Amino acid sequence: MTEGRTTVIGDEWWRPIPRGMPRDARWILGGRAVRSFADGFVALLLPIYLLELGFDAFAIGTIITSTLIGSALLTLWAGLIAHRHSRRRMLLAACLLMAATGAGFMVLRDFWPLLIVAFVGTLNPTAGDVSLFLPLEHTALSQTIEPRRRTALFARYSLIGTLAGAIGALAASIPDLAVGWSGLPRLVGMHLMFGLYGVLGVVALLLYRPLSPAVEATTTTPQASLGPSKRIVYGLMALFCIDAFGGGFVVQSLLALWLFQSFGISVATAAAILFWTSLCSAVSYLAAVPISERFGLVNTMVFTHLPANICLMLVPFAPNLPIAIGLSQMDVPTRTSYVMAVVTPAERPAAASITAVPRSLATALSPLLAGYLLTLTSFGWPLIIGGALKAGYDLLLLIGYRTVRPPEEAGPRLDPGGLETVEKRHRR
Question: For the domain 22-217+224-427, what is the CATH code?
Answer without folding.
Answer: 1.20.1250.20
